[in-house]
Specification:
By secondary structure, the chain is of the alpha/beta class. It contains 5 helices and 5 strands. It has one domain: Response regulator (Rossmann fold), CATH 3.40.50.2300. Helix 2 packs parallel to helix 3.
Length: 142
């Protein structure tokens, strides 16, 4: 997968954790952007198109759930994976109601996260190729 094939936005208020996780996601060979808050993530999303948002659930300024609500309102909606230490079933249910593709308990199983992310990035790349092919061959009118 080339670097242009996928973009991941990693959101975690714990800067060292975010930096380490970004390094651990290197096998994806994707462009990994890091935000230290939901507000910073929203700023990035205002200027960048991403395929996947991997976000912490509990952050001080805006929660990961609120970030997912913001993401859902966008034209090109990225997939969302939540990371959390929360054991509350209501948080898990809310995440999936907002369209989360996964809800991962901390400590994160990095191999599992990479597998999920790789599949999402592959599906998004295939969808882009299909869209591009359809744009190049408009339907004929009879």
């Amino acid at each position: 997968m080339s670097r242009s094939a996928g973009r991941v936005l990693l959101v975690d208020d714990m800067h060292d954790d975010a930096r380490l996780l970004a390094q651990l996601l290197a096998p994806l060979d994707a462009n990994v952007l890091v935000a230290r808050s939901a507000a910073e993530a929203i700023g990035i999303l205002d200027n960048e198109t991403v395929d996947l948002v991997v976000t912490d659930l509990n952050m001080p300024d805006v929660s990961g759930l609120d970030l997912a609500r913001e993401v859902r309102g966008r034209l090109d909606v990225p997939a969302v994976i939540f990371m959390t230490g929360s054991q509350r079933p209501t948080d898990r249910a809310a995440a999936f109601e907002l369209g989360a593709v996964a809800y991962l308990q901390k400590p994160i199983d990095v191999a599992h996260l990479i597998g999920l992310a790789r599949e999402i990035l592959r599906e998004r790349a295939e969808a882009r190729m299909t869209d591009a092919a359809n744009d190049n061959h408009p339907p004929s009118v009879h």
